[in-house]
Design a protein that fits this description.
two-stranded antiparallel sheet; 8 helices; Rossmann fold; about 30% helix; alpha/beta; 13 strands
Length: about 280
């Protein structure tokens, strides 16, 4: 059950993403012209870990402007993308039309996904980088994932590592743990006028709220939802320049700490399956 405070925070996040989605779609960061020409937004190791998806029904939760969703459709999957931002869904729908992708996009809060899309409707649920931090309750999310999957269906997550989200940016080479690792009732609230793509746009919606979720909390939530864990891999790279000035760009447009990268897990992938019985 969503509290009034939680609802207002999620609404603030939605307004923030509504304003930024069109700017993201027009940015060099997403390079939609290159994407239309065939560039994939998925990393080769993601595709390898994910395995064959041709002929499967997939849903991408928190899909933003749809690049990962359409990249999965290019691998032969029939895709549904879901996001709470109307402008993001509109941008994704236009991108799918321009690429001829087998992808449909739906606007909905992720916690209502099973009500909107139906239960036991998908062979695979996909969640990409930068999604889970916008959700206040990881257990409720896991229940949604389990409801969406058919028996034998599976989940694939690629996310920034919760340890990465605890680190404060500093001017020296130290990595200082400042922010919560474990899920907290109260979010981290930020007031920022910018975004992660290069733009001169001045945004009006500056308030956002984020929640971290520890690896143990995520795994336990999936197990309690009835899923069986089939894979957990921690990676020493991440899909964006998390600490400008401290990271090197490596193969596959990934980023890694320049100094002793082995001291920090940068991202992770999780796979789980819904038992047939």
């Amino acid at each position: 059950m969503q509290s009034e405070d939680e609802g207002s925070r999620l609404e603030a996040n939605r307004r923030m993403w509504d304003e930024r989605a069109p700017i993201h779609a027009a940015s060099r960061f997403y390079d939609l012209d290159g994407f239309r020409s065939g560039r994939s937004s998925l990393q080769p190791f993601e595709v390898e870990e994910l395995g064959p998806v041709a002929g499967l029904d997939l849903v991408h939760l928190q899909c933003h402007i749809g690049t990962d969703t359409i990249s999965l459709s290019r691998l032969g999957a029939s895709m549904t993308g879901l996001d709470f931002s109307g402008p993001a869904v509109e941008a994704a729908t236009r991108l799918a039309a321009s690429t001829g992708a087998d992808a449909t996009f739906v606007q909905s809060d992720v916690y209502a996904a099973a009500d909107v899309l139906g239960t036991s409707a998908f062979d695979l649920v996909y969640t990409g980088t930068g999604a889970l931090c916008w959700l206040p309750d990881i257990r409720r999310w896991a229940q949604v994932v389990a409801a969406l999957l058919r028996p034998g269906g599976r989940l694939f997550i690629r996310e920034g590592h919760p340890m990465l989200w605890t680190i404060e940016e500093r001017d020296d080479d130290l990595l200082a743990v400042k922010y919560p690792y474990f899920e907290q009732p109260e979010p981290l609230t930020w007031t920022e006028g910018g975004t992660y793509v290069d733009t001169d746009q001045v945004f009006e919606q500056k308030i956002s709220h984020e929640w971290n979720h520890g690896i143990g909390e995520i795994v336990t939530a999936l197990l309690d939802a009835g899923l069986a864990l089939t894979g957990l891999v921690e990676h020493d790279s991440v899909a964006w320049n998390a600490f400008p000035g401290k990271m090197d760009r490596i193969a596959g447009n990934e980023w890694r700490l320049a100094d002793r990268p082995a001291r920090l897990a940068h991202s992770y992938t999780i796979q789980a399956v819904k038992p047939r019985q």
